[in-house]
Amino acid sequence: MIFNIQKCSVHDGNGLRTLVFFKGCPLRCLWCANPESQAYGREITEIPRKCIACDACQKACPESAISLVNGEMRIDRSLCKKCFKCTEVCYAGSKEIVGEEMDVETLFHEINKDRLFYKQFGGGVTFSGGEPLTQPSFLAAIAKKCREHKINTTVETCGYGNYEEFSKALPYIDSMFIDVKHMDAEVHKRLTGVSNEVILSNIRAISTHGIPVTIRTPVIPGYNDSEKNIGAIASFISTLPNVQEYELLPYHNLGASKYASLGLPYALEEVKPPTDEEIIQLVKLSNHILKPYGKQCFYTKKNKKEIVL
Question: Which of 55, 145, 150 has the alpha carbon at shortest distance from 105?
Answer without folding.
Answer: 145
